[in-house]
């Protein structure tokens, strides 16, 4: 269903997102962003792309994420500029590269290939996965898969993911063999095997997400001992989609670990905000107010608390069909 907003509503969203009055709270700016993302229009792309001069890495990485999810090739020049800016926060550059993968235009492949040796591990790993994803989208399996999706297909998750689930779980049709203990264990082994290409490990990750049982959550949580921050932040993101209370202990451990990468802790905080069980709130408050915690972690907790409050209220301000509950990347 196409949602129409008036020019003045659009202007209000832009003013809010870009904090033109200089006193808009970060979580309020996020809400404007989610609304623009839900509009999926060329106007949204233009407005969102204006936000990249902001000082908040958290906000900017979310802008890039939303541009990828909107999926319009008109966002590619802005994303490329972000990826090319070596002074930009790696989390933002990562998200720009991932968004290019989500938009999946073959013209992005040579650009992404330029960054396969980037000094930032999360950037080069993202580019590797994004190239593999664009190639997969254009492969026989990928084309067949995309052709099989029509208006009556109800996806398990509406996000455009950095990798499709493993072949046998592509459309979310779970057969008993896949969800069996042995099936989950097979996927877990693939997930944690550092000798396999990251794209293949990601496919196992998204297969486990689609299985979604407590055993699959445990299998995913075992990925938190990996060395790649990128890999771990994606697991935390998936936990934010799964909303399984079973993942709370592992997410709290990640959030509270000062030696863990900011990107992973950020994603854990937001997943906890989405799961929104009572025991997570004091931890989110604690880290939001910790002066010596990294800015990204503090700001993520602020956004997460807004998500938590949204989940725990009867708030229907989003019920205007523009957006559902905020899902942050
Ligand atoms: Fe990310
Ligand atoms: Fe994120």
TrEMBL record:
Q: In which pathway does it act?
A: Protein modification; eIF5A hypusination
- Protein's cellular compartments: Cytoplasm; Nucleus
Q: Which annotated residues bind Fe cation 2?
A: 233-234, 266-267
Keywords linked to the UniProt accession = Cytoplasm, Hypusine biosynthesis, Iron, Metal-binding, Monooxygenase, Nucleus, Oxidoreductase, Repeat
Q: What Gene3D superfamilies does its record include?
A: Leucine-rich Repeat Variant
Q: Which reaction does it catalyse?
A: [eIF5A protein]-deoxyhypusine + AH2 + O2 = [eIF5A protein]-hypusine + A + H2O
Instruction: Please give the name of this protein.
Output: Deoxyhypusine hydroxylase
């Amino acid at each position: 269903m196409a949602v129409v907003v008036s020019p003045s509503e659009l202007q209000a969203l832009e003013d809010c997102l870009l904090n033109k009055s200089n006193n808009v709270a970060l979580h309020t700016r996020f809400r404007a962003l989610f609304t623009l993302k839900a509009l999926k229009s060329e106007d949204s792309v233009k407005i969102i792309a204006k936000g990249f001069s902001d000082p908040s890495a958290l906000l900017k990485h979310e802008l890039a994420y939303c541009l990828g999810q909107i999926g319009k090739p008109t966002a590619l020049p802005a994303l490329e500029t972000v990826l090319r800016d070596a002074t930009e926060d790696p989390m933002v550059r990562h998200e720009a590269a991932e968004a290019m993968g989500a938009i999946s235009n073959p013209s992005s492949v040579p650009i992404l290939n330029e960054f396969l040796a980037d000094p930032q591990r999360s950037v080069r790993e993202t580019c590797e996965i994004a190239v593999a994803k664009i190639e997969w989208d254009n492969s026989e399996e990928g084309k067949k898969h995309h052709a099989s999706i029509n208006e009556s297909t109800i996806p398990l998750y509406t996000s455009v993911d950095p990798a499709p689930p493993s072949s046998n779980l592509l459309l979310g049709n779970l057969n008993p063999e896949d969800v069996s203990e042995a099936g989950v264990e097979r996927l877990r082994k693939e997930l944690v095997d550092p000798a396999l290409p990251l794209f293949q490990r990601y496919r196992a990750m998204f297969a486990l997400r689609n299985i979604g049982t407590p055993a699959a959550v445990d299998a995913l949580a075992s990925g938190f001992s990996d060395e790649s921050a990128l890999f771990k932040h994606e697991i935390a993101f998936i936990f934010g989609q799964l909303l399984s209370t079973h993942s709370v202990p592992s997410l709290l451990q990640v959030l509270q670990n000062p030696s863990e990468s900011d990107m992973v802790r950020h994603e854990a905080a937001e997943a906890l905000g989405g799961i929104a069980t009572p025991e997570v709130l004091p931890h989110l408050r604690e880290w939001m107010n910790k002066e010596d915690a990294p800015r990204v972690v503090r700001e993520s907790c602020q956004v997460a608390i807004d998500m938590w409050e949204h989940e725990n209220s009867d708030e229907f301000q989003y019920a205007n069909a523009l957006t559902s509950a905020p899902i942050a990347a």
